[in-house]
Specification:
By secondary structure, the chain is an alpha+beta fold. The chain folds into three domains: about 150 residues, 2-Layer Sandwich (Beta-Lactamase), CATH 3.30.450.20; about 110 residues, Signal transduction histidine kinase, dimerisation/phosphotransfer (DHp) domain (Helix Hairpins, Orthogonal Bundle); about 150 residues, Heat Shock Protein 90, CATH 3.30.565. The chain contains ten helices and twelve strands. The protein has a five-stranded antiparallel beta sheet. A five-stranded mixed beta sheet has the order 7-9-10-12-11, covered by helices on one side. β4 and β5 form a beta hairpin. The longest helix is centred in the middle third of the chain and has 57 residues. The two termini are about 65 Å apart.
């Protein structure tokens, strides 16, 4: 990885330096060309004021030639028609052609000044040509300077750039090596820590790095480890619950099946001759069959709610009518157990599956009756708060130990198995309640204290009516 970072780093630096060199050359060329043009124009203005156009122009130009130290610089005086009147480098003026078609001459005639860069027709040398109209507007003064000065400056600039590039590359290699170490070494350390994810309870020892991105990897890895551990624990817990579930189902079905088998065998072998006893056995068989049917129905209900295979049959459900129906069933049970029922509900209509609401209220209120004391009470309160329906059930019964509160909604979980068997039931009531509430996107909370009582509050959203 060090080599990759180094190569990339050097490639970027080289690209940046090359682009910078090209831009510098271009800009320098433009600046130098512009400065030379300005300098030559300034020189032409000085020459224009020095020449007396009414006397011998060639003689004056030759005097100027002695002053100008650079042999390649030419000064030419032309008429407005393009004819050469004087020149610093040729004695026979008649040898010159007409310059009227030259670009710098045309531009000078049109705008007062002209400037071009081109090759000389005599020796193919690149020259800078600048021309301007004289002070009395009757003549054109032109100066030609070799382009070599600009090239010399450019070559000097290129040499400087090359030296700078070499020095920058040396510094870049050094910095790239140091930079790569600050990335590679932490990544190796982080990689070593990440390999601990396969451990059951990994203990990470991440360092604090100067790059936030590397520190974020440490944070994410720790979070991932916690998530994996939580997932594994949940899967193990679900595995245990599933095993307990099958064990409980087997146990719950084994007892009634055994009873039914025993009664049926006695009846089949005519071991029961008394008609009253025979009818009692048949009633017991029927009771056990009903118990198994109820258990199987409850299991199927939970399974469908968990897998979300159950089809919603939403209708407008009047809560009051459902409550009265449930009370008609449970009132005799409460009376036999010497439990007072206290019911309070608002005239609420909600969009739901009526059977779900009936099972929810029945299971909550039935538990409040079953796990109570003689002379106690069970209270049902249903109200509407905003867009939610609150179903609250309270009792002053035996209560639930604190260490069992987080398990009461598990399937077949019984706080007191002896009492549960005595009062009957499948042990699935609160589990069904929880799944129904979750099915509707609601919440359920429970508070309880031993020998004081229990409070269960269900908060369900009231879906808008169709």
């Amino acid at each position: 990885m060090n080599k990759v970072i180094l190569k990339k780093f050097i490639a970027v630096i080289l690209l940046a330096l090359c682009i910078n060199g090209i831009l510098c050359r271009f800009l320098t060329f433009q600046v130098l060309s512009d400065n030379i043009r300005k300098d030559l124009l300034a020189l032409l203005r000085i020459i224009d004021y020095q020449i007396d156009y009414s006397s011998d122009i060639q003689e004056q130009v030759e005097l100027l030639n002695e002053i100008i130290t650079h042999d390649d610089v030419r000064i030419t005086i032309l008429s407005l028609s393009g004819n050469v009147l004087a020149d610093t480098q040729l004695d026979n003026i008649s040898e010159f052609e007409n310059y009227i078609d030259r670009k710098e001459i045309k531009s000078a005639i049109e705008t007062g000044e002209g400037y071009i860069r081109g090759n000389s027709k005599t020796d193919n040398t690149i020259f800078t040509y600048v021309a301007k109209i004289s002070k009395n507007n009757d003549f054109i003064i032109r100066i030609a300077a070799p382009y070599s000065k600009i090239n010399q400056n450019i070559y000097m600039l290129i040499t400087t750039i090359i030296v700078n590039v070499i020095m920058a590359l040396m510094v870049s290699v050094f910095l790239a090596l140091r930079f790569s170490k600050t990335i590679v070494i932490p990544l190796r350390e982080i990689s070593g820590e990440i390999s601990k994810l396969g451990d059951r309870q990994p203990k990470f020892e991440f360092k604090e790095y100067k790059y936030d991105e590397l520190n974020s990897i440490s944070v994410i890895t720790k979070h991932m480890s916690e998530t994996i551990n939580e997932t594994m624990e949940r899967l193990e817990q679900e595995k245990v619950i599933r095993q307990e579930f099958f064990s409980n189902v087997s146990h719950e079905l084994k007892t009634p099946i055994t009873s039914i088998g025993g009664y049926a065998e006695m009846l089949e072998n005519n071991l029961v001759t008394d008609e009253n006893m025979r009818q009692d056995f048949l009633r017991r068989i029927k009771k056990e069959v009903l118990k198994m049917t109820s258990l199987i129905n409850d299991i199927l209900m939970i399974s469908k709610l968990e897998t979300k295979e159950i089809k919603r049959k939403f209708t407008k459900v009047r809560i009051g009518a459902v409550v009265e129906d449930v009370l008609a069933t449970l009132m005799p049970v409460a009376k036999d157990a010497d439990i007072e029922l206290k019911v309070n509900y608002m005239p609420i209509t909600m969009l739901a599956d009526e059977e779900h609401i009936r099972q929810l209220i029945t299971n909550l209120l039935s538990n409040a009756i079953k796990y109570n004391k003689s002379g106690g009470y069970a209270m049902l309160d249903i109200k509407e708060e905003g867009k939610n329906i609150i179903i609250e059930v309270m009792d002053n019964g035996v209560g639930i130990p604190e260490n069992s509160l987080n398990r009461v909604f598990e399937r077949f979980y019984r706080v007191d198995s002896g009492r549960s068997k005595k009062v009957g039931g499948t042990g699935l009531g609160l589990s069904i309640v929880k799944h129904i509430v979750q099915h509707y996107g609601g919440k359920i909370a429970i508070k309880s204290k031993e020998d004081v009582g229990t409070q269960i509050v269900v908060n369900m959203p009231n879906l808008p009516m169709l």
